[in-house]
Description:
The structure is a single chain. By secondary structure, the protein is α+β, with helices and mostly antiparallel strands. Among the domains are: 30-99, SH3 Domains (SH3 type barrels), CATH 2.30.30; 106-172, SH3 Domains (SH3 type barrels, Roll), CATH 2.30.30; 311-408, C8orf32 fold (Roll). It contains nine helices and 23 strands. Strand 3 (41-44) and strand 4 form a beta hairpin. The longest helix is centred in the C-terminal third of the chain and has 17 residues, at 297-313.
Amino acid sequence: MKKTLSLLLALIMAFSLVAVLPVGASAASYKATIELGSGTLNVRKTASTSASVVDKLRNGDSITVSAQTTRSGEKWYKITTEANKVGYVMAKYVSLGSKVGSSSGSTSTDNKTYTVRTTTMKIYKSRSGSSSLLATAKKGAEVTLLTKYTSGWAKVEYGSVTGYCNFKSLTASTGSTGTSKLSPKFYSASKPNYTLYTTKEQVTELLDYHLSNFSSSFSFKVNSTNSSTLERILPSAKADSVYGYLLSEAEMKAAKLGSTVTYSIDASSKTVYAKINYTSAGLVLKHYKDGTAITDSKAKALNNKATSILSSLIKSGMSDYDKALAIHDYLCENVVYSTADVGATAYGAIVEGKAACQGYAEATGMLYTLAGLENVIVRATNNSTKATHAYVKVKIGGDWYNVDTTADDPINNKNPQP
């Protein structure tokens, strides 16, 4: 018999808007992208706002459109999501691309990385210079090329933005620009080996080990599975974990997840099974740690932005100290302090330029890890006020140094510390 206990904190969310093109015959299928201003888009079982919801989509999610219909004057598309869920969405939130199985004026590019070669490159909402300007990328910035059109336009991903630019502004990334390739280095935590886990300290030690390895799940034996014992020994708050990119409470609520770490108990074998849900930064680092594909749209945007930043900052021959300082200075110069929900994540800091101490710490730790600097996120508690604060310890030349990009940031940094 199993019973489930949910603990810690979790999720993701917010985005999008749109342009609409008609799907010709329903027999044809088209690649398409969800474009929202904010929030999520419901995928309905039928073409009706009262129909049951079979899935939810976010800005930038890829879908396949197979048919269209009109109900009460509203155009709907029948779609298939990347998770192979079939349903209907309002057409006004969909940007159509090329026909599946047909070149129709465009070429698939297998998401190759390109570099901006002009001084600046404008990215538009649609394939028109008169459409809304979404972003401007500077020379040397990297984008992911999604589709190349015979008209000279290209569909690209740049940070959290998906839009269209002049293909002539791009050049294929060759790795010959003097930029050092990513060589991620992860914090090395020791694995505990208790036969039975009887204290919260022991379980936290095991959790920290698996967080440092970005494990999706793990299990351990306990001497009792009664509720009072489990409540006493299982970590019950995010502050209990020293390491890891765990979802915030706001993210957890938005994602409709019960917790960041979920514990299921098998009473017959006295075994606890733990499942971990990571932030977008955790998903990116998990990709570099064990090769897990990045499928989450926010994680993709974060990875693109982070690799672009490191491409411009980290050069061959730099010392670890110089790498750490360059990343520190970049975050201090490009992030402003914010207590908004997004501020608790590396995504908020790196993609949106807004963060509280948790977001600063996760952004610092993530970039340090990808740059080959062993580091660990520290969550400290003020003994008198009980307020918590996050910063990073990084290993340079065999010694550990404290790095607090929250406290060091001079831009709009109002009362960042407890």
